[in-house]
Amino acid sequence: MRRATAELIVKDPNKFAHHDRVFLNNPVVMQGMGLAPLVVLATSGQNAVMLAVAVALLLVPSRVLACLLSRLVPLHDEDPAPETLQKKLLPRALVYGFSTAVVYLAVYPILNILFSTSLLSLGIYLPLPMLVVEPLLTYRFGRVQETVRKAVSKGLRITVGYALLLVLLGCVREWLAAGTMFGVVVSRPVLPMASMPAGGFIVLGVLCAVWRALAQKRKAYLTKEARNLVDVHSQKEADREQ
Q1: Which end of the chain is more exposed for a tag (fewer CB within 10 A), N or C?
Q2: 133 contact partners, CB below 8 Å, separation of at least 6
Q3: How far apart are CA 240 and CA 105, in angstroms?
């Protein structure tokens, strides 16, 4: 761990954890966002991979495009007044919705090339990554004017965190429901209802509970290590001054 990172953790561990959108502050696990594709479609490892690829192709480009287009209706203040928000909320919402739709139209042919007829297993729910996952990116569009760099950085982190949870949940549900993993038999079925949306909610709830517990332990460990590292450097500097 670098000294600068350790000092940041010691100064504000919650702020440090907030920027970790993969594990410590996964938006699905911690805020319950983007649940529909997880509980409805992520019923197998293959479906989860297709959804993860769709999310990876959608999130960053749509966020960057929305970032550029939203400058047509800019927010100049970090915390704008309610009157300003009321005037700009609707046009900014339309900008984000339009940008996501445009990117989805460009992404679908790529998905069709990659997965061909396998996409049919997702049915009409394929656009869900656009309609449901996108709030992971745009839920603060009414208050924040992002830079392109921040849009790319946050988009990549959220993409990795969401795709990781998608694949994990899909594999667990496939194993519980069918006893297989990507079609390969590994055991007998354990919980057949795991392939249903109701079972998906149950499995996701258990995974989120375990994830949260591990995240808390990881956060406590990082905080302890950071404090020890800062103390060591402080002691070294004190010895040099003497």
Answers
A1: C
A2: 34, 37, 55, 58, 59, 162
A3: 62
Indicate the DSSP class of residue 183. Answer: T
C-alpha 238/C-alpha 7 separation (Å) is 17
Q: What is the pLDDT along the chain (242 residues), one digit of tens a residue?
A: 777 788 888 888 888 888 888 999 998 898 887 788 889 889 999 999 998 998 888 888 888 888 888 888 776 655 566 676 667 777 777 777 788 788 888 888 999 999 988 888 887 777 765 555 555 555 555 566 778 898 888 889 988 999 999 999 999 999 999 999 998 999 999 999 999 999 999 999 999 999 999 999 999 999 999 888 888 877 777 777 76
Distance CA 160, CA 166 (A): 10
Q: Where are the alpha helices (DSSP H) in 70-186?
A: 82-115, 128, 135-138, 148-178
DSSP assignment string, 22-35 = TTTT-HHHHH--SH
Two structure tokens written together for 6 = 């350790």
Distances (CA, A) of 133 to 51, 83, 100, 104, 160: 11, 29, 11, 12, 13
Residue with tokens 């993860």: 52
Q: How many CA atoms lie within 13 A of 98 on its CB side?
A: 12
Single pTM value for the model: 0.85
For residues 221 and 215, the answer to whether their CB atoms sit within 8 Å is no
Beta carbons of 52 and 167 less than 8 angstroms apart: yes
Distance of alpha carbon 212 from alpha carbon 218, whole angstroms? 10
* Cross-strand bridge partners of residue 184: 181
